[in-house]
Amino acid sequence: MRGNSHVRFLGGESGSNATDLPDQTIENKQKFISQIMSSKSPVRSCDDVDESVLSYAEIKALCAGNPLIKERMDLDIEVARLKLLKSSYQNQRYRLEDNLLKYFPQKIKIIKNSIEGYENDIKRIENNTHLQDEGISPMIVGNVTYTNRSEAGTALIEAAKKLKPADFIKIGEYRGFEMQIKYNLFDGSFETKLKGNMSYGTNLGSDGAGNITRINNTLEEIPELIKLAQAELENLYIQAKNAEDELKNPFKYEKELNEKIQRLAFLDAQLNLDNNNSNNLENNNEVKEECAKTKPSILQTLKEKKQVVEKNGNIGKQPDIII
């Protein structure tokens, strides 16, 4: 900055009117921006209105001297608020209808298929469980069948160590399930997956016999998975029923909105009629003034005729004057 220019920032005390107005305006604008930029709802609304704008509108109404202007201003704000509520209501209806048509049927179908898969896997376990002296069913690792718990667990770990980091790879079978193992390079752990109609996973440890126990516990948890799926299915039915009931509810401010829209249209018609009458009156006044300017003056006409007579020398003869 050149020269000796100085800038002074004036700030008033708390509660002052004029000096606090810019700060209040900035604060209100920040509230508005924060609400508009929020992603909580697709239909965004702002309850705070700039106080300065309202003051100017009120001054305009007072200067006009017409109470209909003030009523129309307040009514316009109220109609806009009700229309925003109706827009939010309609968007909510669209979401509910979309859930009833797509989300709920698809989700219910997936959970039903899962329950059916769990039930089939329970039958698979029952048909393929043949306990040996060590308390396990025969486990196939590679091309070898093991009936000893420790030997089976150790063979499983040794086979897993030979794997390279990759996706799940089939390594054997157990109790009617395909056994797959994956080596995690990040932490050096091994994860096994038992694949039947559904898939069940668990991590392997360093103890061979302990790994067999982990696998058996994973299969024994299938009935609990069925209970969780049934509870989720029941919850989906409840949500679908609630959505159907919600769609039956009309917009509760519909009557009020229609009444205010009709009143607003009436006020607009009245205010436009007043404006037209005022414009017609102004136009009539302009026409009268224009006519007064263009209408010939009798006295001026007589003077012009007299000058013509004197110029021609016909002073003694009285000319005919046509007006």
Brief descriptors of the model:
323 residues; alpha+beta; six-stranded antiparallel beta sheet
How would you characterize the overall build of this protein?
The protein has 323 residues and is α+β, with helices and mostly antiparallel strands. Helices cover 62% and strands 10% of the residues. The chain has helices at residues 21-36, 51-64, 67-128, 149-161, 208-220, 222-247, 254-294, 298-312, and strands spanning 139-141, 144-146, 169-174, 177-184, 189-195, 199-204. The chain has a six-stranded antiparallel beta sheet. Strand 1 and strand 2 form a beta hairpin. Helix 2 (51-64) runs antiparallel to helix 3, helix 3 runs antiparallel to helix 6 (222-247) and helix 4 crosses helix 5.
Q: What is the gist of this entry?
A:
With 323 residues, the chain is α+β, with helices and mostly antiparallel strands. The protein has helices spanning 21-36, 51-64, 67-128, 149-161, 208-220, 222-247, 254-294, 298-312; strands at residues 139-141, 144-146, 169-174, 177-184, 189-195, 199-204.
